[in-house]
Amino acid sequence: MVIKTTEFVKSSGKWQECPEPNLPEYAFIGRSNVGKSSLINAMMNHKDLAKTSQTPGKTQLINHFLINENWYLTDLPGYGYARVSKSMRKDFEKINTNYILNRQNLVNLFVLVDSRHSPQQIDIEFIEWCGESGIPFSIVFTKADKLKPNTVNANVEIYRNELLKSWEELPDMYVTSAEKKIGGDEILEFITKTNEL
Ligand code: GDP
């Protein structure tokens, strides 16, 4: 897919405030600092469409971008900030889970995990929740340039095995690097193929 136009549409504090669900939508989520903004910017060929490193504790919003005038890219608040209060963490979770469960035009959720780390409990729990809730999603490994390819593959394998403990079928997985512009094209290809309501 060639990215011709990218347009910020709006920030919403809850799913009811999101733009009318009249176009296919693809959302990106992950722990804060996972590299979500960088990957979105790399895929969109844009320096600062999504803001990098949002300050933990700031109001977290659902950001909608209109791409090529025919689909929405949604940047969801990061989960798992270590340094915010429990009640604030609960608020982030509520924004995200309500959006994910209710957004009727959501075609796919891309769940980002850092390729350098072994499966983290918070990510596994979130991924399992997506599976149990019947949410269409894929796993996106970020920052792959920081490791040797063999180590990335080994870490992906560890993830697969972890998920196979409870599932028979695995979601699609993408290995990416915003820094080296790897993997974004595969994600865009998937979006091209599924871009229908
Ligand atoms: P977000 O909080 O998930 O939006 O994460 P950011 O996109 O702000 O990235 C967090 C940090 O990781 C920043 O310092 C980025 O420069 C760095 N980072 C993000 N993606 C990559 C990548 O693909 N490779 C490398 N080496 N660093 C990255």
UniProtKB/TrEMBL annotation:
InterPro entries annotated for this entry?
Answer: G_ENGB_dom (IPR030393), GTP-bd (IPR006073), GTP-bd_ribosome_bio_YsxC (IPR019987), P-loop_NTPase (IPR027417)
Top-level taxonomic group = Bacteria
Which keywords accompany this UniProt record? Cell cycle, Cell division, GTP-binding, Magnesium, Metal-binding, Nucleotide-binding, Septation
Pfam families registered for this protein in UniProt: MMR_HSR1
* GO MF annotation terms: GTP binding; metal ion binding
Which Gene3D superfamilies does the UniProt record give? Answer: P-loop containing nucleotide triphosphate hydrolases
GO BP term, example: division septum assembly
Question: What PROSITE patterns does its record include?
Answer: G_ENGB (PS51706)
- Please list the cofactors this protein needs: Mg(2+)
Which positions fall inside the EngB-type G domain? 22-197
Query: What family is it from?
Result: Belongs to the TRAFAC class TrmE-Era-EngA-EngB-Septin-like GTPase superfamily. EngB GTPase family.
The entry's function note states:
Necessary for normal cell division and for the maintenance of normal septation.
Question: Could you identify this protein by its name?
Answer: Probable GTP-binding protein EngB
Q: What organism is this sequence from?
A: Kaistella chaponensis
